[in-house]
Specification:
Among the domains are: 140 residues, Serine Threonine Protein Phosphatase 5, Tetratricopeptide repeat (Alpha Horseshoe), CATH 1.25.40; 90 residues, Serine Threonine Protein Phosphatase 5, Tetratricopeptide repeat. Helix content is 71%, strand content 1%. The structure holds fe (ii) ion.
């Protein structure tokens, strides 16, 4: 008789150790736990013929956005196919493998769609939901995240150990599609169900960011450290959110302290860690803060990542780092690689590299060179499609701020005012950035800046 897993679905696991490892792997991955890799290792050891574990190994590797891990994913795919060739594979197993294969082929949207199809027969598979959610996040497909979750949320009534994490995912999807009120409720409900739902906690932080409630955001994150103490490097991203709240209140010394003591406590070259850091230094510099030599270590690490080509979101943050560290040769190398990817036009990420990637990257170069007219032209051309570089509204806001700054420095005050207005309207509140640029532009223009309130 087939065993069933924590979702009540059949799995080809026999030993108690294998079943326990699969359960632990799911809970760790869903909570962004630092123990995820250990549980995966234990599962692969206890159940070497469990193809879903190999598919997870491949997908986890690809989600890290590192070129050297593509070989690991290919090897995992081969192993998973080998297992199903000799043992057979059910619908669920085949879906995980097909999703990995599509991702490896550069077809990320197809990979996420395969998980959506799986949910029609396996709507409680939180691992499949979370993987699809992660892939859509990389694609900037917020509506897709929300649609996927809305189809399955009636399954998650709080009776299963993983239900809370799904409410956390739903909160994030709601927030990214503009339903801030519902997102806050869903995120707090997620934490009521599972106290370590770091993604749900983080979704509520996004709500506070988008609704200009920086002080609420500080209180929220600083009073719930138990929800993210267990995390892998995702905790650096939560600290990044905390730093953004302090930045909004003008507490620049605290931002720099968080940068040094937490966000760059470990000098990793994970693209998400580099992105947190580069984004924060860029914002500080825009506010006129001297960040000292902090660009140097980011630039040194980014130099080794210019040929990765795994995510345009990563490329743009490597670009910020290289420009901040004045690595001209590596900057050119990165632009060249992005052009090559765009011309190849093979897969979802190549199309993003073509547009808006190249315009955005060229705009960042021009901005650092002080050619603000050119920077504004390029960043404006990229702007309507910037959601496709992936990440969140809060993350992409660094490009929005640089675009506004380029407009102001280029003397395009009316255009800058339009951008400030649009940014404020989207955010549903007047944050420190909107207020300061509004005041500045009021002085530069004869008519007052209208901002959302
Ligand atoms: Fe975030």
């Amino acid at each position: 008789m087939a065993a069933t897993d924590l979702y009540g679905y059949d799995v080809s696991l026999e030993s108690a150790a294998a079943k326990e490892s699969w359960r632990n792997l799911n809970l760790a991955f869903l909570s962004h736990g630092a123990s995820t890799a250990d549980h995966l290792g234990a599962l692969l050891k206890a159940a070497p013929a469990f193809a879903i574990a190999e598919a997870c190994r491949g997908l986890f590797s690809l989600l890290l956005g590192r070129r050297e891990l593509i070989a690991t994913a290919q090897e995992a795919l081969a192993k998973a196919k080998e297992i199903t060739a000799s043992h057979g594979g059910d619908v669920r197993t085949n879906a995980y493998i097909a999703a990995l294969e599509a991702y490896l082929a550069g077809q990320l949207a197809k990979s996420a769609a395969i998980f959506d199809t799986l949910l029609e027969t396996h709507p409680r598979d939180a691992m499949a939901i979370k993987l699809g959610h992660a892939i859509k996040f990389i694609l900037g497909d917020a509506l897709g995240m929300r649609t996927s979750l809305e189809a399955v949320m009636p399954q998650f009534r709080g009776t299963n150990a993983t239900d809370g994490y799904m409410h956390g995912c739903y909160a994030f999807a709601l927030e990214e599609t503009g339903d801030q009120r519902a997102a806050e409720i869903a995120g707090k409900h997620a934490l009521d169900l599972v106290s370590d739902d770091a993604w749900g906690l983080h979704a509520v932080a996004h709500v506070y960011d988008m609704t200009a409630r920086a002080r609420d955001g500080v209180t929220w994150l600083e009073s719930r450290t138990d929800a993210w103490a267990h995390c892998n490097n995702f905790r650096y991203h939560v600290y990044w959110h905390l730093a953004l709240f302090y930045l909004d209140t003008g507490a620049h010394d605290e931002v720099l302290r968080l940068y040094d003591m937490e966000i760059r406590q470990d000098k990793t070259d994970d693209y998400r860690d580099i992105s947190n850091a580069a984004s924060l230094l860029s914002r500080l510099e825009i506010e006129g803060v001297d960040v000292g030599a902090r660009w140097e270590e980011l630039a040194a690490l980014s130099e080794h990542r210019v040929d990765d080509g795994c995510a345009v979101f990563a490329d743009l943050h490597y670009m910020l780092s290289l420009l901040g560290g004045e690595r001209k040769a590596a900057t050119e190398q990165l632009l060249h690689r992005m052009r090559r990817d765009a011309n190849r036009n093979d897969g979802d990420m190549d199309r993003v590299a073509d547009h808006p990637g190249l315009n955005a990257a060229s705009g960042l170069v021009a901005f650092r060179d002080g050619n603000y007219t050119n920077a504004f032209a390029n960043l404006s051309a990229a702007r309507p499609a910037m959601q496709t570089v992936g990440g969140s509204h809060a993350q992409r806001d660094v490009f929005e701020r640089i675009t506004i700054e380029a407009a102001i420095r280029a003397g395009a005050f009316e255009e800058a005012r339009t951008l400030v207005d649009e940014r404020a309207a989207k955010r549903g509140g007047v944050d420190g950035y909107t207020a300061s640029r509004g005041t500045l532009l009021d002085g530069l223009l004869t008519t007052p800046v209208a901002v959302a309130s």
